[in-house]
Amino acid sequence: MPAPIRLRELIRTIRTARTQAEEREMIQKECAAIRSSFREEDNTYRCRNVAKLLYMHMLGYPAHFGQLECLKLIASQKFTDKRIGYLGAMLLLDERQDVHLLMTNCIKNDLNHSTQFVQGLALCTLGCMGSSEMCRDLAGEVEKLLKTSNSYLRKKAALCAVHVIRKVPELMEMFLPATKNLLNEKNHGVLHTSVVLLTEMCERSPDMLAHFRKNEKLVPQLVRILKNLIMSGYSPEHDVSGISDPFLQVRILRLLRILGRNDDDSSEAMNDILAQVATNTETSKNVGNAILYETVLTIMDIKSESGLRVLAINILGRFLLNNDKNIRYVALTSLLKTVQTDHNAVQRHRSTIVDCLKDLDVSIKRRAMELSFALVNGNNIRGMMKELLYFLDSCEPEFKADCASGIFLAAEKYAPSKRWHIDTIMRVLTTAGSYVRDDAVPNLIQLITNSVEMHAYTVQRLYKAILGDYSQQPLVQVAAWCIGEYGDLLVSGQCEEEEPIQVTEDEVLDILESVLISNMSTSVTRGYALTAIMKLSTRFTCTVNRIKKVVSIYGSSIDVELQQRAVEYNALFKKYDHMRSALLERMPVMEKVTTNGPSEIVQTNGETEPAPLETKPPPSGPQPTSQANDLLDLLGGNDITPVIPTAPTSKPASAGGELLDLLGDITLTGAPAAAPAPASVPQLSQPPFLLDGLSSQPLFNDITPGIPSITAYNKNGLKIEFTFERSNTNPSVTVITIQASNSTELDMTDFVFQAAVPKTFQLQLLSPSSSVVPAFNTGTITQVIKVLNPQKQQLRMRIKLTYNHKGSAMQDLAEVNNFPPQSWQ
């Protein structure tokens, strides 16, 4: 068999390939030749073949078939074979493959070899891919080599010991005696690896950290080494850009940071040397900046003197003036971490930080924005807001939302006056209205409401802000609300803060009508505008007929929300005109619910935001009635109250005692209920709710003749009727019994009735009597709904019906608004 080509020739050949396919063909051909050589146990060229295989592995091609050949090379007596074998083991093997365990004996023999270079190969391999089992078996040999006088072996043994400690932390104490003399070594390689080993031990074990602080007096040794590095002259062996061994300096500073953290004595011992490093290190080259950055981190992390901390922040301030973007970013990030503890020192660099807002790099710009908001206080609020508002005008869209939120929070916390506060928020809404948080509109409305003396000024400013520009919807919403509340102040020209403008009632209505018909107006904005027009009917005197006409027009709007508002407002004009002025009077001063941070929606009665309704056909098998607790998001927004589930029961609910048992299964928290005692009514520990006062007396009155029944749904042969009862124990509870009948020729199976009501109500569905509605009206399904209406408001309900009929899954939604007044008054 001819001799295989050399590695150099293979590399040259592969590089001549013009396409990926051509390269793949060359690799496959060479891999086939290497496999054949391995099968023939060719010892002469095994080393060459494994070397070529490693090169192909580096190119991303599979080379796992060479793993055993690596083990054979490791077992060879030739150093060249061992070198390639160990290299292959580090590249092709890891602890997930059992093959690596076969190396343990070879590594142990090589660790005791007479040649230091063979020992070095074994240490490198063990430190690279040794498993926990290998580390346990070979830790003794590593510890012996750590005590040797050979610097070449000591530095490799120290790094190997780091790997052993990471794999088997309980072996840490084995290396403790060997660490005593490591820092007395002159060789920088040994010093560097020794510091890495000590750092690993201190990070992993609090006991080791305390031992090195107290017993070993490690800090003075490290200070001595660092001082020698700073004061030593030029050494070509260790010099990097005029600084002596910066890698060792950085490692020592990191270890000092660990030793000085939360320790007064250690921190005091290193204060002087840290000041020396901070003042004597050259900053013209990146090497010096790296050492200074580590020095700053160490100063900030230990219990250092206040003067030293100021020095560290000044170094970061100098970093902000550096041309290198990475250094500026690092400085901003570090200042952001320290601004809470050293606020005054960071404030000195405020102008430099604000200048970073103009940087072209988006990462620097974001860090500068976050740090600028952290620097805002009552003394600099005006100047900082001026800069941040200018930044808001010119920044990219992805910054506007965060910047607007930050300005809102800062203005709320440090506003020097209410007028300034209102002007600032209006400026944000004018500049970036479409990017502000959802709670910006109600928060500003609340602020304006509470600033009684600013009402005339605010409504005039808002009126001028939206003249001809409706692009910023939150601004238009606030303006519409204010014009509706304080339109009379706008028309009367009572503004004292600035020159009043002359506005007529018709001009005000023109603006609100143009908002209603604008293509840029959202449904929410139109609702604000229509409500504002309605409010003006009690504030204006000459345009009431025009307002009636506008409101009546929108009674037939295709927008359901707008239509409903208009219909209700029309009813106010016609049936309840005597109540209109009282209902539309000015809003009282609002109480603040939350301060700082995103406003939280205050949920009452344990209500949560409804999940979106998933529309999918019901399964073919019987559907458990407990699925009726699906929340129907039918009325839109957060205006839905959840259905509280009842535990399913297999007993009919006709008998009085069984009805009480069924009611006893109800749990208000959704957790499984305990089995009810048959002879007693369970005691409810939850807050007062629909079943308050449950006792042995009858739960409900007989059907009251004064509450007529209604037909809630009648379509496709399915008819749903509602009958009403009032609770004896709680007059606010209306009990609705539904009766579902089927006039078609086939049964309706898997019938599920679901309902949702506005949040001012609470609704509870009890279990239905069956899930099958018999055909030809031969039977009905009954189900009880209990509605708590503490505010005696008109009842509205959305219902969802799902069932199987004639082999098809049917689903329908309907709204029930014709409840008799006796059922809710």
UniProtKB/TrEMBL annotation:
<protein>
    <recommendedName>
        <fullName>AP-1 complex subunit gamma</fullName>
    </recommendedName>
</protein>
<dbReference type="GO" id="GO:0006886">
    <property type="term" value="P:intracellular protein transport"/>
</dbReference>
<keyword id="KW-0653">Protein transport</keyword>
<keyword id="KW-0472">Membrane</keyword>
<dbReference type="GO" id="GO:0031267">
    <property type="term" value="F:small GTPase binding"/>
</dbReference>
<dbReference type="InterPro" id="IPR008153">
    <property type="entry name" value="GAE_dom"/>
</dbReference>
<keyword id="KW-0168">Coated pit</keyword>
<dbReference type="GO" id="GO:0005829">
    <property type="term" value="C:cytosol"/>
</dbReference>
<dbReference type="InterPro" id="IPR011989">
    <property type="entry name" value="ARM-like"/>
</dbReference>
<dbReference type="GO" id="GO:0019894">
    <property type="term" value="F:kinesin binding"/>
</dbReference>
<dbReference type="GO" id="GO:0055037">
    <property type="term" value="C:recycling endosome"/>
</dbReference>
<dbReference type="GO" id="GO:0035646">
    <property type="term" value="P:endosome to melanosome transport"/>
</dbReference>
<comment type="similarity">
    <text>Belongs to the adaptor complexes large subunit family.</text>
</comment>
<dbReference type="GO" id="GO:0043323">
    <property type="term" value="P:positive regulation of natural killer cell degranulation"/>
</dbReference>
<dbReference type="InterPro" id="IPR017107">
    <property type="entry name" value="AP1_complex_gsu"/>
</dbReference>
<dbReference type="InterPro" id="IPR050840">
    <property type="entry name" value="Adaptor_Complx_Large_Subunit"/>
</dbReference>
<keyword id="KW-0968">Cytoplasmic vesicle</keyword>
<dbReference type="GO" id="GO:0090160">
    <property type="term" value="P:Golgi to lysosome transport"/>
</dbReference>
<dbReference type="GO" id="GO:0048471">
    <property type="term" value="C:perinuclear region of cytoplasm"/>
</dbReference>
<keyword id="KW-0963">Cytoplasm</keyword>
<dbReference type="GO" id="GO:0005802">
    <property type="term" value="C:trans-Golgi network"/>
</dbReference>
<dbReference type="GO" id="GO:0030742">
    <property type="term" value="F:GTP-dependent protein binding"/>
</dbReference>
<keyword id="KW-0813">Transport</keyword>
<keyword id="KW-0333">Golgi apparatus</keyword>
<dbReference type="GO" id="GO:0030121">
    <property type="term" value="C:AP-1 adaptor complex"/>
</dbReference>
<dbReference type="Pfam" id="PF02883">
    <property type="entry name" value="Alpha_adaptinC2"/>
</dbReference>
<dbReference type="InterPro" id="IPR002553">
    <property type="entry name" value="Clathrin/coatomer_adapt-like_N"/>
</dbReference>
<dbReference type="InterPro" id="IPR008152">
    <property type="entry name" value="Clathrin_a/b/g-adaptin_app_Ig"/>
</dbReference>
<dbReference type="GO" id="GO:0005905">
    <property type="term" value="C:clathrin-coated pit"/>
</dbReference>
<dbReference type="InterPro" id="IPR016024">
    <property type="entry name" value="ARM-type_fold"/>
</dbReference>
<feature type="domain" description="GAE">
    <location>
        <begin position="705"/>
        <end position="820"/>
    </location>
</feature>
<feature type="compositionally biased region" description="Polar residues">
    <location>
        <begin position="596"/>
        <end position="607"/>
    </location>
</feature>
<comment type="function">
    <text>Subunit of clathrin-associated adaptor protein complex 1 that plays a role in protein sorting in the late-Golgi/trans-Golgi network (TGN) and/or endosomes. The AP complexes mediate both the recruitment of clathrin to membranes and the recognition of sorting signals within the cytosolic tails of transmembrane cargo molecules.</text>
</comment>
<dbReference type="Pfam" id="PF01602">
    <property type="entry name" value="Adaptin_N"/>
</dbReference>
<dbReference type="InterPro" id="IPR013041">
    <property type="entry name" value="Clathrin_app_Ig-like_sf"/>
</dbReference>
<feature type="region of interest" description="Disordered">
    <location>
        <begin position="596"/>
        <end position="629"/>
    </location>
</feature>
